[in-house]
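Annual report, structural modelling task.

Input specification for the acetyl coenzyme *A complex:
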Amino acid sequence: MSRKIAIFDTTLRDGEQSPGASMNTEEKLIIARQLVRMKVDVIEAGFPISSPGDFKSVQEIGRIAGDACTVCGLTRAVDRDIEVAAEALRTAKCPRIHTGLGVSPSHLRDKLRMTEEQAIARAIHAVKYARNFVDDVEFYAEDAGRSDQEFLVRIIQAAVKAGATVVNIPDTTGYNMPWDFGARIRDLRERVDGIEDVTISVHTHNDLGMATALALESVRNGATQIECTINGLGERAGNTSLEEVVMAIHMHEEALDAHTDIVTTELTRASKLVSSITGINVQPNKAIVGANAFAHSSGIHQDGVLKARDTYEIIDPADVGAGGSQIILSARSGHAALRHRMGELGYAFNDEEFETIYQSFLEVADKKKEVYDEDLESIVHERERVSAAIWTLGAVQVSCGFPLTPTATLTLLDEEGAEHKVCAFGTGPIDAVYKAVNQVVSVDNDLSEFAIQAVTRGIDALGEVTVRVTAADGEVYTGRGSDGDIVVSSTKAYLNALNRLISHQRERAADNAAATADAQ
Ligand SMILES: CC(=O)SCCNC(=O)CCNC(=O)[C@H](O)C(C)(C)COP(=O)(O)OP(=O)(O)OC[C@H]1O[C@@H](n2cnc3c(N)ncnc32)[C@H](O)[C@@H]1OP(=O)(O)O
Ligand SMILES: CC(C)C(=O)C(=O)O
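The model returned the following structure:
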C-alpha cells in the first residue's frame, strides 16, 4: 500500500484571503459540507480571532464535520489568538490548532522584529500553550521557503520537541524551485530528531506558477500532508490547487508511492460550488476543472479523440465528475468532427452532400468563434433551400445610416447562371434590397410578414429571417434564410419565398397545360 497523503483544505482560510472571495458563515458551511463529502482530511475553517464571523464559522464547521475530518483554526504565536481558537474549536470532535510565526530573515527582522532566539522561544511557547487545549497542534514556519535552512532545522526541531503533531513548511511567497524546496524537506527529514513521529506538511503558493510542482516535489521528499485550496484560490497568485495535486497523485501513484482518499468524482462539483459562492470564475484552461479541460476544438485532436479518447486525454472526465469530453466545432474542425456531430443530431449525408455541408460549415465557422448545433441545423436547412433555388444570390451590398439614403446593390443569378445586377433605394436597408430583388424577379406579391431571430448565442450569432409573401391569387408562401449578416439572411429569405411562389406557379401552369391537352 502506498503512503497516504493527507489533504488539508484551506479554501475557507487562505482561499478566502483571495481579494473578493470573502464568505459568510452560511456560505462557508455549504463549502465545508462539500469538503466532507469529498473526504478531505483537514478543513482549515478560519482564523478565529480575526472576527466574530470567522469565530462562528470555525465553531459551526467543527460541529458539522463531526469525526469525518479534522477541523483546524489558524492563529499567530500569540496567547490570545490560541485561546480564542481553542474556544471556537471547543465542541469540535477532531480539533487542531495551527500556530506559528515567520522564520525568514525578512519576516524576523522587518515584520516580527525578533531575533532567531526570540522566535524559537515564541514557537516553543505557542506550541506548548496550544497543547494545553488540544492534542493536535500544527506548527507553521511561515516563509520557510526563504529561510536560512540551519535556522529552519533548529526551529522545527524546537516545535517537534515542544509537542507539535504536524510541522508545516510553507513556501509562503512561492519563491522556490521545486527541487530546492524538495531538498529542504529532505534535509529536515534527515536532521530533525523525532520528525518521523510527526506529519510533515507543505503549504505552497503560486507566485511563479509552481505551487503544484512544489507540493509534489515535497511529497517525493517525504511530506505526507498537502495544504491546498479548491480552484487554487488564495493570497496573491493563490495556493496549490487541490484538484491538481489530487489528480497528479492519483495519476502517478506508483511513481510517487502515494495516494489520497479524495473522492475525485466530486472535484468538478466542488470547483463550481466555490466559484459560484465566491464569484471568482475559473479560467477556462485551468487544469482538471476549467471549462476547456476536456474540450477539443482542432480537427486533428477531434479526429483522434473520436477514434480513441486517450489519444488526447490523460484523465477520463467522469473520474473528476466532469461529464464527458466535448467536441467544440470551430473553423479548425475537420470532417471527422462535423460528421460525428451531424450524426449525433440525426443527419446522414452521402459524401457529396456532406462535402457541400462541410464547405458551408467552414464559411460559418470563419465568421464565428464556435459553431453550435442550431448553426448546423441552419446550415442544413439553408442547403435544402439552395437546392430548390430558381433565383440565387450572387452578391448584396447596402449602404445606410444617418443621413444616407439606404441603397442596395444586388447581383442575382438565374437558373442558367446569368448575372442580373441592379441598384435600388429604400426606406431602410432591407427595403432597398427587396426593391432591388423586385426589379429582377418580377412576380406580383405583397410582403405580409418579416421576422428575424438569432439562432445561437453571442454577437456573432447566425440571424435567421422568416418572411411571408402573398401572391396575387391570395396564396401565402414562406421563405427562410440564415447567415451571420442579417442583410444577407433577409435577402435569402425573400428569394426563398419568391422561388417557392414561382415554382408553384410553374407547377400549376404545367398542370393546367396538361389538363388542356387532355381535354383536346
Ligand atoms: C501567510 C498568511 O496567510 S498568515 C494569515 C493571514 N491571515 C490574517 O491576517 C487573518 C486576518 N487578520 C486579522 O484579522 C488581523 O490582522 C489580526 C486579528 C490577526 C491581528 O490584528 P491586529 O492586532 O490589528 O494586528 P495587525 O494586523 O495590524 O498586525 C499584525 C501584528 O501581528 C504580528 N504578527 C504577525 N504574524 C505573527 C505571528 N505569526 N505570531 C506573532 N505575531 C505575529 C505582526 O508583527 C504585527 O505585530 P505588531 O502590531 O506588534 O507590529
Ligand atoms: C499561515 C501560513 C501557513 C500561510 O498561510 C503561509 O505561509 O502562506
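The CA atoms of residues 76 and 99 lie 6 Å apart.
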